[in-house]
Write a structure and sequence with these properties.
Layout lengths: L1 H18 E5 L16 E4 L5 E4 L5 E5 L8 E5 L6 E2 L2 H13 L3 E6 L14 H15 L11 E6 L1 H11 L20 E4 L12 H8 L5 H6 L13 E6 L8 H12 L4 E6 L17 H12 L1
Parallel strand pairs: 5-7, 5-8, 8-9, 9-10, 10-11
Antiparallel strand pairs: 1-4, 2-3, 3-6, 4-7
Helix pairs in contact: 3-4
Length: about 300
């Protein structure tokens, strides 16, 4: 009896390990990286509220559902390009995704900083493109369709996701010879930073990504509403009208750019909720993720 219980426990443990796994994003040398010790720090801000600061070694945490529906979503937590709010905008969201059959790949991307990156502005996009590349190359392994790979981002992670959705023709790692497409098939943007312009940007995110005195060309390149084209993937957006950290104008600008270029887009705006509410907007019983699931089903 004891042996049988031990076998059952081992099977359960292996199932849990198999269902959630963290891997290094790059198996070899990290592109655009300086040869310095990894300065990453964990900020424990309470139950289910870890954040990672100064990340220099990016990872993917893979959450696999029992019955995959064939669609993958790469999740980019926010944090102003200073840290990643890993639990708040990862654990709860991934749990909801896998319950609906979506395979979640949570990206702990590099924090853009001169200490660890040669060109800090490129590091996060390099990581997002590598994540898409990895998932697409390993689609059969995870029971996925290679043309059903999307990316979701919160706040500054929304800027990264929108960068992936608008800069896929520009390979951020020029030395990467893999010709696998890095274009996401859809993008979900949750209270995202979109613009780098003075009137709309979240200044902390802009300063961390492109510096305190960026050139006009840098502001334009990384204002992703200005980079939308007819080839951009379908977009889903969530924002609160009273967001004082990242003005709702960011989502409006991206949505209007999608309309202008005839890119399918859906946007849901809440009058309240502020910024950074994660999965649950405290001002309403409405769940934005239910709208996301409905929208995703319409893409099939």
């Amino acid at each position: 009896m004891k042996n049988e219980l031990l076998i059952i426990w081992m099977c359960l443990a292996m199932t849990s390990l198999f269902a959630q796994q963290e891997i290094r994003l790059y198996q070899g040398q990290i592109p655009n990286a300086r040869n310095v010790p990894d300065p990453e720090q964990i900020r424990d801000r309470g139950p289910n509220n870890r954040a990672f600061a100064d990340t220099a070694v990016p990872t993917l945490t893979i959450h696999r559902p029992e019955e995959p529906n064939g669609t993958a979503i790469i999740v980019c937590p926010g944090g102003g390009y200073a840290y990643t709010a890993f639990d708040k905008e990862e654990t709860l969201v991934a749990k909801e995704l896998i319950e609906k059959g979506y395979t979640a790949f949570v990206l702990k991307y590099r924090i853009p900083q001169d200490l660890t990156n040669i060109d800090k502005s490129l590091a996060p996009l390099q990581d997002a493109q590598q994540a898409i590349r990895y998932v697409r190359n390993n689609a059969s392994r995870y029971q996925l369709e290679p043309d059903q790979i999307g990316i979701m981002g919160f706040s500054a992670g929304g800027h990264l996701a929108s960068s992936a959705a608008t800069h896929f023709d520009h390979i951020a790692d020029a030395n990467n010879q893999d010709t696998t497409s890095v274009k996401p098939d859809f993008v979900a943007l949750i209270y995202p930073v979109i613009s780098m312009t003075d009137s709309l940007t979240h200044m902390g995110s802009r300063n961390n990504l492109i510096g305190e005195d960026p050139k006009a060309s840098q502001i334009s390149i990384w204002s992703n509403d200005q980079q939308v084209t007819t080839d951009s993937p379908p977009a889903f957006l969530i924002h609160a009208g009273d967001d004082r950290a990242v003005p709702v104008g960011n989502s409006l600008a991206y949505y209007q750019a999608c309309l202008h270029h005839e890119v399918p887009a859906e946007m849901h705006l809440y009058p309240g909720g502020g910024h950074g509410f994660g999965l649950y907007n405290p001002t309403t019983t409405d769940l934005w993720i239910d709208h996301l699931f409905h929208w995703l089903s319409s893409l099939d």
